[in-house]
Amino acid sequence: ASIETPGNIPVVLSAACQLYQTQAGGYQEEVSLPLGMVVNAVFKNQSWLYVQTPHGEEGYVRYASCLPLGILPPQHDTAPCWESHSDIFPKPVGTRSECGRARSECGGGSKWRTGNGSGVARTEAVANTRLKAATRQTLLVISKDYQSTGPSTLTVAKGDVVALISSKVKDWFWVRDRRGQEGFIPAAVAGHGFL
């Protein structure tokens, strides 16, 4: 894509950043853009994206500050959640009981360790179920039919909704359909994850 043939791809700013506008006369103006703003990416130039804001301003932002809509950043456990821009909500740790209070607030240990410990096992099973339910899924809408060509690919039709499992292979998505079947599809049939 270029200024003559723009890409026009909506992206969201994953961090507050500066929009650098080059002005006539050789000077540069900077405009602060907030976290979460959706901008229109026109083209990429090395590590910069030329974007248009909803307010009609144009200029360059750092490519690393942008995420295409519908794509989540990879999970990295290298930093605590409060230092990460990719997940603003901490993951549940299962320290709360079914009554919504900390286990120690629910009447002591005897309530949780009854008989052979089945109360503890049941509470841990409920916590594990909640953790699985809290796992985020990125859903993709299929924009073109695709016929499976091998054992690891999946047949999808236009309009199908699939869950994105992995996007680590260039130009391919590993997805799960509503029947629970998994396989690769070309990223292009899902619009590369863009809405």
UniProtKB/TrEMBL annotation:
Residues 135-195 form the SH3 domain. SMART domains: SH3 (SM00326). The keyword Isomerase does not apply. Keywords: SH3 domain. Gene3D superfamilies: SH3 Domains. InterPro entries: SH3-like_dom_sf (IPR036028), SH3_domain (IPR001452). CDD domains: SH3. SUPFAM superfamilies: SH3-domain. This is SH3 domain-containing protein. It comes from Ranatra chinensis. The lineage of its organism: Eukaryota, Metazoa, Ecdysozoa, Arthropoda, Hexapoda.
